[in-house]
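Hi U.,

Before I forget, here's the chain from the pilot set. I'm dumping it here mostly so it's searchable later in email.
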Amino acid sequence: MDELTNTPASDVQAAINAGAALGFAKLPDEGGGIPYAVVPEGYRIEELEALLPTPARQRGASRLRDAASFAAYFKRHESDNSTIWGTIDPPRFVAVFDDHGADGIAGWREHTATYACPLSPEWNTWKSRDGKQMAQTDFAQFVEDNLPDIIAPEAAAILEISRTLTAKKKVDYTSAVRLSNGEVQFAYQEEIQGTTTKGQIQIPEEFVIAIPVFENGPRYRITARLRYRIDDGSKRLVMWFDLLRPHKVLEDAVNEVWQEIADTTGREIFHGSHS
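Structure:
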């Protein structure tokens, strides 16, 4: 009887486990490739790409903050199989450097770059108050804080209106009339040392702002229409503004970025997203 027959089963299994654990590793030849390890069934195989001086292929997901950087990064890493994808809502552009090829050869699609068209602080500020009712003094303060964005009427006139609204915060408003010159006239009365004094304030029915849609982008003109309500009980004035078709302004801004990227990279942009 041979020696293996007389060896306890547990020792045999231990020897098998020890031998299997040894396995062997294969390093790449001079032609390249990924090192690998061969192990028996029941054991996992792990790639040893980390042992190479450089990765076997490019991968990663870069985030760019403006269209020029996105286009420059694309041109730096592009290949024949690279693609660019874009959407208007939400505004977003994605480059896939290792996409599937037109010849039917599949790509890994693991190396990408994204420009998510971050909105400007000015756009976020005005959009956050679009259609939101404000007390008279809050409206006046908002207008004064964002005066550099208003291009019509001129800044001095808007500033005067803002300060007048602030000064007349405790009066009782009795009526509001739209005038033929495009302004709204608010009539009010106030008590001064026991005497009722009447007065009027005239405010443009609309004003125009010029703000960038995206960070560091060009400015776009947007009309803001004045809205108001006189509270029946308190006789206080409530004011707000409605931006005129801001979604079309956003669409125009995306289309300009779309054209800029297409012209700079010389590539067709696919309308959609990859997965």
